[in-house]
Amino acid sequence: MSPFLRLSGQGLAIKLLYFIFILFSVIFGASSFAATPAELKGNVNSIELYIPKLGVYSGRTLEKEKLNLILDELSVYEFASTIHAPYFAADPNYPESLQVDTACMGEREFTLMNESIALANRIGAGVVVLHPGRIGPDREMAFSSMVENLKVLASTAEDQGVMLGLENKEGTDPYNLCCKAEELARAVEAVNSGSMKATFDIGHANLTCGGDPEKLRTFLETLKEHVVHLHVHDNGGKWTEMYDGDEHRAPGNGCVDFSVLNMLSGYRGVYNFEVFSMEDVLQGKKTLENVLKL
After folding, report:
1. What is each CA distance from 75 to 6, 22, 60, 102, 221, in whole angstroms?
2. Predicted model pTM
3. Cβ burial, residue 3 (10 Å; 0-12/13-18/19+)
4. Per-residue pLDDT, 242
5. Are strands 80-84 and 46-50 parallel, antiparallel or unpaired?
6. What's residue 8's pLDDT?
7. Whole-angstrom Cα distance, residue 294 to residue 21?
8. Could you give the CA distance from residue 198 to residue 184 in angstroms, rounded to a whole number?
9. Which residues make beta-bridge pairs with 273?
10. What is the 3-state secondary structure (H, E, C) of the chain?
11. Which residue among 28, 95, 149, 258 is least enclosed by CB atoms within 10 Å?
């Protein structure tokens, strides 16, 4: 069955909008915590629904009425969409009930991830972003466990006509899997599903590469055949006390060499600005327009 036929009516309409965008233009997007939909409209064409910060969970329970109110508001603006699923975070402000380590998943974690996949099906989201797992006492055991869990999620995504994008994490946190391009590519290839590829987070990659533009270029060269989604933000290329250096600055306010994105000549997905304000979105958009020569 075609993936389109697995989508809901609303999802099919938005999915078609997404593909119209990618056929005819570069798609700039922003994470839902950057600004309100009203502020974003006219400046970006896509919004990434960041599930941990949407306020639609009470503990572990998805509050469908709250979610429906958000989706009703979004429908007015006709954004294309992507989704960021729950993940593991050491940040004390991150909801404990939404912690998901993809290397160590039980029924609760699968339920959370499946709810994000079902939402993507419902609204026709282009990609669901997933984080890789955490390294336990045995790295290879953690990697193998993550791959097996991702295979289950990819099967669910395939059934619902949804694409998953496994994101590279920052190498300044030594407990992250898939910081290096080789390991992320290995994970995608081990899952071996048409419904799971890679989200290239250029800010995370810059930290892993120590702010070295040539290393960043090599990183993307290794990963580029798998990339279906982009996270765009800036940093200083080194560890700091604030989020291990993962500061999510506006593009242009750090040392990331965004010109490497020109290596993705056939890319037709979203350039999602994962930043914290409308001002940062606008600066990011200006930076990429200059780099991509739009």
Report:
1. 20, 19, 26, 31, 37
2. 0.93
3. middle
4. 87
5. parallel
6. 57
7. 15
8. 8
9. 30, 232
10. CCHHHHCCHHHHHHHHHHHHHHHHCCEEEEECCCCCHHHHECCECEEEEEHHHCCCEECCEECHHHHHHHHHHHHHHCCEEEEECCCCCCCCCCCHHHCCCCCCCCHHHHHHHHHHHHHHHHHCCCCEEECCCECCCCHHHHHHHHHHHHHHHHHHHHHCCCCEEEECCCCCCCCECCCCHHHHHHHHHHHCCCCEEEEEEHHHHHHHCCCCHHHHHHHHHHHHHHEEEEEECECCCCCCCCHHHCCCECCCCCCCCHHHHHHCCCCCCEEEECCCCHHHHHHHHHHHHHHCCC
11. 95
3-291, CATH topology level: TIM Barrel (3.20.20)
pLDDT digits (tens, 9 = 90+) for 108-167: 999 999 999 999 999 999 999 999 999 999 999 999 999 999 999 999 999 999 999 999
Domain ranges of the chain: 3-291
Distance from C-alpha of 292 to C-alpha of 259, rounded to nearest angstrom = 7
Residue 168 in tokens = 């590279």
Candidates 228, 233, 236; CA nearest to 200 is 228
Tokens of 177: 């899997």
pLDDT in tens, 170-186: 999 999 999 999 999 99
pLDDT digits (tens, 9 = 90+) for 204-229: 999 999 999 999 999 999 999 999 99
Q: What angle do CA 71, 286, 16 make, to 5 degrees?
A: 35
Question: What tokens were used for 24?
Answer: 């005819």
